[in-house]
Design brief:
This protein is α/β, with parallel strands linked by helices. It contains 9 helices and 15 strands. Helices cover 30% and strands 28% of the residues. Strands 3, 4, 5, 6, 7, 14 and 15 form a 7-stranded mixed beta sheet that branches. Strands 10-9-8-11-12-13 form a 6-stranded parallel beta sheet. It starts with a strand and ends with a strand.
C-alpha cells in the first residue's frame, strides 16, 4: 500500500510517499480501506515543531476490511469513520473501534471526515462552556473545520450573539455563511467584546487577548494544541473561568455521552442544521501541499487527503 512518511523535522517539504505492508487490526481495532483522511492542525504542528519523525495520526473514513478481537459492533463491509493514531496517511489504516462511528448510507466519506471528529470537538467545547440561552459566544479559528461547526452549534443550540474571529478579512464571507453574526480579526485592537463565552481553537499568543475579551463571569474553553499562558490576574478581575476540553477524555470516560453526541450530530446533519465545509480534496501523495495550506492559514473548512 501507499503511505506518507515523515523523515526529519522541519516542515511539509520532508513528507515522502513509500510502499508499506498493509497493517493488521489488533485487539479493539478495525482495518479500513481509506477513502478520505482528514488533516489536522495538531499533526501539522508536530511536523513543524517536533524533534524527530512523526507518525501521522488523524481522522479516516472508509470501508472495514478486517475486524480485530474485541472490536465489537463492526463487521467487514461497514462504512466507518474514526481515529487512527499511527499512519493515518495511507491507503489502509487501523482505527480504534471505540472511537469509530458508522457512516450513514449516501454520505460521502469526505463529508464524514469533515463532520464527525471536528463536530464532536465543537459540540464538546460548546457543552463544556455551559452556554445559557441568549449568551454571547466568540469562536476563534472560526474558518477551520472545528470552528465552523462550533459556529453552527452555537446558533442551533440557543446562543445569542455569535462572533467569528479569523486571521484574514478574506475569510469573513465564509464564516458569515456558517452563521456568524459578526466577524473580528486577530489583529484588531478590539475584539468586540465582552463575551460570555470564548471557544478557543488557536491558543498560543491568542490565548491572552481571548481571556481579555471575556465578560464578568465569562468562560473560556481551550481545546487547541497551541498551548499558551494565562495570567491569573486576568481571570481574577473578571471572575472568569478557563476550561480545558479534550475529546478523547469524553470518548473513553463517558462513552454513553459520546454515543449520544454522535447520534445527534448525524440527525442534525440529515436535517441540514449542520453543514460540512471542505476546503480541498488533495491526493494522498501530495500531503505536503495539504500541510502547507493549513500552516499558511489558507483553509476554509476541512483539508482532506484522498487515497
Amino acid at each position: 500500500m501507499l503511505r506518507v512518511r515523515h523523515e526529519v523535522n522541519g516542515g511539509p517539504e520532508v513528507l515522502f510517499t513509500e510502499e508499506a505492508e498493509v497493517p493488521a487490526a489488533g485487539a479493539g481495532e478495525v482495518l479500513v480501506r481509506a477513502e478520505a483522511v482528514g488533516v489536522t492542525l495538531p499533526t501539522v504542528r508536530k511536523v513543524r515543531e517536533g524533534s524527530g519523525p512523526v507518525s501521522f495520526g488523524g481522522e479516516v473514513a472508509g470501508t472495514v476490511v478486517a475486524v480485530g478481537p474485541d472490536a465489537r459492533g463492526f463487521a467487514v463491509g461497514d462504512r466507518v469513520t474514526g481515529l487512527c493514531f499511527d499512519h493515518a496517511y495511507a491507503e489502509f489504516a487501523v482505527l480504534a473501534a471505540p472511537l469509530a462511528t458508522r457512516i450513514p448510507d449516501g454520505v460521502d466519506p469526505v463529508d464524514a471526515v469533515a463532520l464527525v471528529r471536528s463536530g464532536l470537538v465543537a459540540r464538546g467545547a460548546y457543552e463544556s462552556a455551559r452556554v445559557e440561552p441568549g449568551e454571547s459566544v466568540l469562536v476563534t479559528a472560526a474558518a477551520s473545520a472545528v470552528g465552523g461547526l462550533a459556529l453552527q452549534y452555537a446558533k442551533a443550540l440557543g446562543a445569542g450573539r455569535v462572533v467569528a474571529a479569523v486571521s484574514s478579512a478574506a475569510k469573513a464571507a465564509f464564516v458569515r455563511g456558517l452563521g456568524a453574526d459578526e466577524v473580528v480579526l486577530y489583529g484588531d485592537a478590539d475584539w468586540g467584546g465582552p463575551y460570555d463565552v470564548v471557544l478557543d481553537g488557536v491558543g498560543g499568543e491568542l490565548l491572552a487577548p481571548a481571556v481579555r475579551a471575556l465578560a464578568t463571569g465569562g468562560r473560556l474553553v481551550a481545546f487547541s494544541s497551541g498551548g499558551g499562558t494565562v495570567e491569573a490576574y486576568e481571570l481574577l478581575v473578571r471572575g472568569a473561568s478557563l476550561i480545558g476540553f479534550q475529546m478523547r477524555a469524553v470518548a473513553q470516560g463517558r462513552p454513553e455521552l459520546y454515543a449520544r453526541w454522535q447520534r445527534e450530530q448525524w440527525e442534525m446533519y440529515a436535517a441540514g442544521t449542520l453543514r460540512t465545509s471542505v476546503h480541498e480534496r488533495i491526493p494522498l501523495a501530495d500531503a505536503a501541499r495539504a500541510h502547507a495550506v493549513i500552516e499558511e492559514r489558507r483553509n476554509l473548512g476541512k483539508v482532506v487527503l484522498v487515497p
